[in-house]
Write a structure and sequence with these properties.
With 981 residues, the protein is an alpha/beta fold. Strand 2 (69-71) and strand 3 (78-82) form a beta hairpin.
Length: 981
């Protein structure tokens, strides 16, 4: 019996050993199979500019340690491949389907082409699939209906076509996030009541060719938070029966389809009634649907959470119900291009958080309510193309944040209020095509904040052009045509150095045309037609390299006109009605030379007495020429070796003084270093604390370009959030920039403090700093006399002064846009590797730069977005690249749809950015702001540059956040103080 027992035990142990060995061999074989699949995948990659797959080729690296690969610790099988944002090109190999344990596959943000392999439908364990932001074509494989564990699917921004396979929505009931947007998908949305997506929270199908009605079965997805069906060809009545089943809905986008309102496109009330219980709704967009009916009074009963309402480009008629003012949290109201009539409700003043109001292109009448001046946060007011009458309210003077005021094409009368001069942030003022009388007030003409345009044309203004108009040194366009203005054209308009368009036509201006107008550096169009101007047409107009459009017609000009320079493209139409003109322009009379015999009698005295005089004049001219040349060289930044800068506007500081100020450029004074040199702190003889940026002259060619570029930019820009230059020193063996020393160092120093003396920043300070940076960058992109692309925006290039005001610095690799270039990706200055200058710093470089795309303002917006995400997460972009194998943007994007992970990011940000002693009720407000910073960061770092906001929009958004924090915290503190008392 004992022998039998021993034999049994021996057999059991033997079978366990054999079983363990076999399982181990199977696991090993499985990993070998996984590695073989990845090698097959790699063989289809034709472009890897970042060498992301470099360690895939190394024999000494275990497959689980390959970049972007993660294995299960227990089974040692590959469960995740994340190669997002690596700029990989080629096709997606079907061999990936052999990774039978794969749970996450993210190939987004690359340049993959071809079809999506249907074999991926065999990955039955797959939970997350992201192929967005590529160039994939063909249809979505119906085999994806077998991915029963899939909850995250993102294939947006490709070239996919065909219909959405029904099996995808019918079989994969675990789907929580679906993004098929920005493709060319057609057909209907394949949902029916037999198959319910109960877990669906995000459905993004915008910008496709989908048709039919919104399926009623969608109402079963009661957890939906975000529904975006914008820009399709969907039809039928607005889906009121569906949306009222989404109690958690936050964003509803139905714009630019073919939806109609109820009862034969006459009744909007049922749809608005269906939204009443959506207590989380924030944005509602119904634009461009040709919706009929009146705005019902119940619109004012929509949830208080609503912040944006878009109803533009419809057929809505009737008046605006005063009850709409109950939407007191609304920040954005867009009603333009409808058939709305009646008056503007005075009750709008109750909407204290309104930032932008659009009501243009309607039939509104009556006066503009003076109560609009009570909306303190109003930044944009567009009431153009209506039938408004009366005068412009004086109360607009209280709108300290007003940036754009558009009242053109109405029936306004009275004079331009002097009080508009108090709108110190105004960038656009358009009062054209009205019946406004009086003179142009000096207070309004002195609005130096105007950055885009001033349009007062087609009114009944009279009097001279005010001298203060010349103070608009940032304005791009001035149009005062078709008025009754008189007097002379101001030569001082030469101070409007950013001016591109000037229209003075249709007035009674007289006297000569100032020579200085043709010398404006960026001027492209001048129209002075239909005035009473006399004299010669200035030669500066012809010599201008920027002028493209000119109109001198119907004046009293005289003299000879050539067809050279800027005049070479002009026709006779530009000179009509000037009987005294002659010249070489086709259609113009020839000039007849007169014989001046009397000049012979002047020849002898000139020969006798003129030679000494000419020598004296020539000597004087030579001196002036040298001074002028020196000034021009300084202004351009074209510094030749051996030249030191001598310019009255900048103090002269010698090399010896700089050496003494920095202790002989001592290492103890070193405060920073980079590719092109080092920065030392120092104190000048007059006790000025400075930062001396000494460039490494061993890199001669690169340094020369960098030095000239930075000098050129720093001389031309003026903004409170951009570093100013004190002076420069340039010798063959030494080149340095002298800048003010910022007492609080760089933003990077505060984000990653190395000692206790460097304070961490709280949420309020971070928002203010970001707002400062956005304002500075917005100035560079849109309003500077020279348009600048920074190209290297990062925390170490953002300095903080004594009160933590942020200043952008380091323009060594920046790009100036030429006169004929627009601020866009398509036409911007080329960024070539042969420049010897990088397109920025790793982690902050826009992905399109890696493919040789041009330097653009969109690239700067991307860098700013990375900074936002970096501040919130507390992680350096380079650290994320090393440890996560992806860019910071993609890492945050993966966390965003997962509430627990997103909550973790926010909580960690609160811990880092909440000083001791801060009231607990601040956390709720700060938490909301952090979420908005994350959303803005993701928006700024969109893969497609054209989908990123402009820096002007970013600056406006950051300004809104800053004001929201300030106002909300103040009101909360006041409330708490009252309760305590």
């Amino acid at each position: 019996m004992m022998c039998l027992l021993r034999l049994t035990m021996f057999l059991i142990f033997f079978l366990e050993i054999v079983s363990t060995r076999v399982c181990g061999e199977e696991e090993h074989a499985g990993l070998v199979n996984d590695k073989s699949s990845l090698i097959s995948f790699m063989s289809c990659i034709v472009s890897d500019p970042e060498n992301s797959l470099e360690n895939w080729k190394s024999q000494g690296v275990h497959v689980c340690d390959w970049s972007g690969v993660r294995c299960n610790n227990a089974s040692d099988r590959i469960i995740e491949i994340d190669l997002s944002g690596r700029l990989l090109g080629g096709t997606i190999s079907p061999a990936l389907a052999n990774l039978s344990f794969l749970q996450i596959l993210d190939l987004s943000g690359n340049f993959f082409v071809g079809h999506i392999p249907k074999e991926l439908g065999n990955l039955v364990h797959l939970e997350q699939l992201s192929l967005s932001g590529n160039f994939l074509e063909g249809s979505i494989p119906s085999e994806f209906g077998s991915l029963h564990n899939l909850y995250y699917l993102d294939m947006g921004s490709n070239h996919l076509e065909g219909e959405i396979p029904p099996s995808l929505f019918h079989n994969v009931t675990s789907l929580s996030y679906i993004d098929l947007s920005n493709n060319s998908l057609g057909g209907k949305i394949p949902l029916n009541n037999e198959f319910i997506l109960k877990e669906l929270r995000f459905l993004l199908l915008w910008s496709n060719h989908l048709v039919g009605q919104v399926p009623l079965a969608l109402s079963n997805s009661t957890k939906l938070k975000w529904l975006d069906l914008e820009s399709n060809m969907l039809s039928g009545e607005l889906p009121s029966e569906i949306v009222h089943n989404f109690p958690q809905l936050q964003f509803l986008y139905l714009s630019y389809n073919h939806f109609v309102s109820h009862d034969g496109n006459t009744n909007l009330e049922p749809f608005f009634a269906s939204l009443m219980n959506l207590s989380n709704i924030q944005e509602l967009e119904l634009a461009g649907n040709k919706l009929g009916g009146k705005l019902p009074p119940i619109i004012g009963d929509l949830p208080a959470s609503l912040q944006q309402l878009h109803l533009e480009e419809n057929l809505i008629h009737g008046s605006i119900p005063p009850h709409i003012a109950n939407l007191f949290n609304l920040t954005f109201l867009e009603l333009s291009s409808n058939l709305i009539n009646g008056t503007i409700p005075h009750s709008l003043c109750k909407m204290g958080r309104l930032e932008r109001i659009f009501m243009s292109n309607n039939s509104l009448s009556g006066e503009i309510p003076s109560t609009l001046g009570d909306i303190k946060h109003l930044g944009l007011l567009d009431l153009s193309r209506n039938k408004l009458s009366g005068s412009i309210p004086d109360s607009f003077a209280t709108l300290s944040q007003l940036r754009r005021l558009l009242l053109h094409d109405n029936q306004l009368s009275g004079t331009i209020p002097l009080s508009l001069g108090k709108c110190v942030n105004l960038e656009i003022l358009d009062l054209s095509h009205n019946n406004i009388t009086g003179v142009i007030p000096a207070e309004v003409a002195a609005l130096t904040s105007l950055k885009l345009y001033l349009n007062l044309s087609n009114n009944d203004l009279h009097g001279p052009l005010p001298l203060e108009l010349s103070k608009m040194n940032m304005v791009l366009a001035i149009d005062v045509s078709m008025n009754n203005l008189s007097g002379r054209i101001l030569p001082q308009l030469e101070n409007c150095i950013a001016l591109e368009y000037l229209n003075l036509s249709g007035n009674s201006l007289e006297g000569p045309l100032p020579y200085s107008l043709g010398q404006l550096p960026y001027i492209q169009a001048i129209d002075v037609s239909s005035n009473q101007l006399t004299g010669l047409i200035p030669e500066s107009m012809q010599l201008s390299s920027s002028l493209k459009i000119l109109n001198f017609s119907f004046n009293k000009f005289s003299g000879n006109v050539s067809n050279n320079g800027a005049f070479s493209s002009l026709t006779i139409d530009s000179f009509l009605g000037n009987d005294g003109l002659c010249g070489q322009v086709k259609g113009m009379k020839y000039c007849h030379r007169k014989h001046s015999y009397h000049l012979v009698f002047l020849l002898v005295p000139v020969l006798l007495f003129g030679t000494p005089l000419m020598c004296m004049c020539r000597s004087s001219m030579v001196i002036k020429s040298k001074v002028k040349k020196r000034s021009e060289i300084v202004s351009r930044g074209d510094l030749e070796d051996g030249e030191e800068i001598e310019e009255l506007s900048y103090p002269r500081i010698s090399y010896r003084e700089l050496k003494e100020a920095t202790g002989g450029f001592s290492a103890s004074r070193l405060i920073g270093s980079g590719r092109f040199g080092r920065v030392y702190k120092g104190v000048l003889l007059d006790s000025t604390r400075v930062a001396v940026k000494v460039l490494d002259t061993t890199q001669a060619s690169e340094i020369s370009r960098s030095f000239r570029r930075e000098c050129q930019i720093l001389r031309k820009i003026r903004h409170r959030n951009l570093i100013r230059i004190i002076t420069i020193c340039s010798k063959p063996e030494f080149k340095a920039l002298v800048l003010p020393l910022m007492p609080n160092g760089s933003l990077e120093r505060h984000l990653y403090p190395s000692h206790e003396l460097c304070q961490r920043l709280d949420v309020v300070q971070l928002v203010r700093i970001c707002s400062d940076v956005a304002e500075g960058m917005s100035y560079l992109h849109h309003y500077s006399p020279v348009k600048v692309v920074h190209c290297d925006l990062k925390p170490s290039n953002i300095l903080l002064d004594h009160d933590l005001t942020a200043l952008v610095t380091d323009f060594g690799i920046s790009r100036l846009l030429k006169d004929d270039e627009s601020v866009s990706t398509s036409n911007s200055t080329s960024f070539s590797s042969t420049d010897g200058l990088l397109c920025g710093s790793v982690g902050y470089i826009a992905p399109e730069y890696g493919m040789g795309k041009h330097a653009s303002t969109e690239g700067d917006v991307y860098s700013f977005g990375v900074i936002l995400l970096e501040m919130v997460t507390g992680r350096r972009p380079t650290d994320v690249l090393i440890h996560e194998g992806s860019c910071l943007r993609e890492w945050v994007k993966r966390q965003y749809p997962q509430p627990e992970k997103l909550e973790n990011i926010v909580e960690q940000a609160l811990q880092r950015c909440t000083p001791s002693g801060v009231p607990s009720y601040h956390n709720k407000i700060w938490k909301q702001v952090i979420l908005e910073l994350i959303e803005l960061g993701l928006l700024c770092t969109m893969q497609d540059p054209s989908t990123r906001p402009s820096m002007a929009d970013v600056a406006q958004e950051m300004g809104r956040l800053k004001d929201y924090l300030s106002n909300t915290l103040s009101s909360e503190d006041t409330s708490v103080e009252k309760e305590n008392n």
